[in-house]
Amino acid sequence: MSIIVSAIGQGLTWGVVGIGLFLTFRILDFPDMTVEGTFPMGAAACVAAIYSGASPLVATFIAFLAGLLAGLVTGLLYTKGKIPVLLAGILVMTAAYSVNLRIMGRANLSLFDKPTMLKNHFLESLPPYFDSVVLGIIVVAIVTALIIYFLQTNLGQAFIATGDNPNMARSLGISTDAMQIMGLGVSNGLIGLGGALVAQNNGFADVNMGIGVIVVALASIIIGEVVFGDLTMNQRLIAVTIGSILYRFVILLVLKLGFNANDLNLISAIVLAIFMMLPVLENRFRIRHTLAKGMTKHD
Amino acid sequence: MTEPIFELNDIVVTVNHGTPEQINIMDHVNLAIYPGDFITILGSNGAGKSTLFNVIGGNIPVTTGQILLHGKDITSMSVERRTRFLSRVFQDPKMGTAPRMTVAENLLLSEKRGQRRGLGARHLKAHMAKFKDITSVMNNGLEDRLNTATGKLSGGQRQALSFLMATIKRPEILLLDEHTAALDPQTSQELMQATNDQITRNHLTCLMITHHLDDALKYGNRLIVLDHGKITYDIAGDQKDNLTKEELLSFFNDLDG
């Protein structure tokens, strides 16, 4: 039981990362590699801030700002520096590794005897692992609500249009450069926030914790899409978090089969590859049909 | 004589500068556009029709020359800033609309053309009745598909939407870049007729590139011909009304010879 609760908690926390990536990967149609650097950067910034006496809440917000800043750099390299977005992301990701070491002063920092958002009377009174579920629900709900609101504003619509058809957006007077910089910034801010939450959940930050983040976040997005099919934009945002939880279940299942934690990246990649190939396989085996049937109640 | 809205003064656009392929794709062009002008533009491929639109829209920088809006120099104004007074419909139906957004969402976007877009709610529902009125003018069923993603529309509906998006907020200058060329003859004629109705009714100032001599003669109050980056023919008013297809054809044959 507790292992399932733990998986839900992790899924919710990682949902924030998935939503962050959704902004670039699905809305702007950008393959943004920056995330592999901003996820540990958020963790590093948060832990370092807690070490220097900041409250966990403030430290988590600082993590958001750190990710935002790194995302802005990618955005500027892409729009003003005319570097392809994939390469711009890789540059910032690579640079972030050194920055993260600078922030922490070493390769990893433990939060063992430090305050975190999970260490308060209410969350500690809950049964094991329910603390991360409650915190995850609160954060995911706030982030999802804010993004849904934002996408319904005039600015948010201009942002969507930029990803959908940049030529048209420009011809309507939308500064596509500004939209892309903003998107990369907010996206990486959310991923930094996710890194801060995961660090507090795990009790440490590690400079290598970014490896494979993009695959996990993509898996959340794709699993949500494959399982639910045609959705409105708002529903899709919620589907990301549900996809993230389902992904944790899949991983749990695979670990039960006898694989160990060292195999996680291999498993993550295989899970993502399978889900991404589903549309191709679907035509032959009608997998989506079967999956969808398993997910909805019969009438 | 009224003042021109928009002027191109001695515009030159040179490409491949300093190489043996150096060429002026816009060669000392002068053009004054007056309020209410509906100018049809003819010219063979590579004559500079699209270059002319890109110069007006700010998409390509001019090498020398001056662009004036109401007598004010806007030569170096950005594409985004120019959308405050300028709108454009492209030939490719895919160019003018956002495919994953609905018809209504596209219209709402275009209603704020050239304006600041802030964090206020978009109030889509409050616009639906108005959008229904606007789209029903096109007589192609667009009004029943306001909540459909534009990627699912037919080419004709999509192009009609592009046209509505370009005119929903009145532009001082409307650029139509062969906007009916990608459609089948029937749909193309219907859209051209609707275009003309809208332009005449709302007294829009418009430049329209076309390949159809008939359309160029039938519509508009002024006709210009481009060749090798120059305006070689500029005829307006009664003279244009009396122009025949034969005269125009013989003029084109002279160009080739």
Characterization of this structure:
The complex is a heterodimer of chains A (299) and B (257). Chain A is an all-alpha fold. Chain A has a domain at 2-209. Chain A has 13 helices and two strands; from the N terminus they run H-H-H-H-E-H-H-H-H-H-E-H-H-H-H. The longest helix of chain A has 27 residues, at 2-28. The model of chain A has no long low-confidence stretch (mean pLDDT 92). Chain B has 257 residues and is an alpha/beta fold. Helix content of chain B is 33%, strand content 23%. A six-stranded mixed β-sheet of chain B has the order 6-7-8-3-9-10, with helices on both faces. Chain B has a four-stranded antiparallel β-sheet with strand order 2-1-4-5, covered by helices on one side. Chain A binds chain B through residues 149-150, 152-158, 160-161, 164-165, 167-175, and chain B through 57, 79-81, 83-84, 87-88, 90, 94-101, 105, 108-110, 112-115, 117-122, 124, 165. Chain B: One of its GO terms (cellular component) is plasma membrane. Chain B: InterPro entries: AAA+_ATPase, ABC_transporter-like_ATP-bd, ABC_transporter-like_CS, ABC_transpr_LolD-like, P-loop_NTPase. Chain B: It comes from Lentilactobacillus rapi.
What key phrases describe this protein's structure?
heterodimer; A: 299 residues; mainly alpha; two-stranded antiparallel ribbon; 2 strands; 77% helix; 2% strand; globular; B: 257 residues; alpha/beta; Rossmann fold; 2 domains; 6-stranded mixed sheet; 4-stranded antiparallel sheet; 9 helices; 10 strands
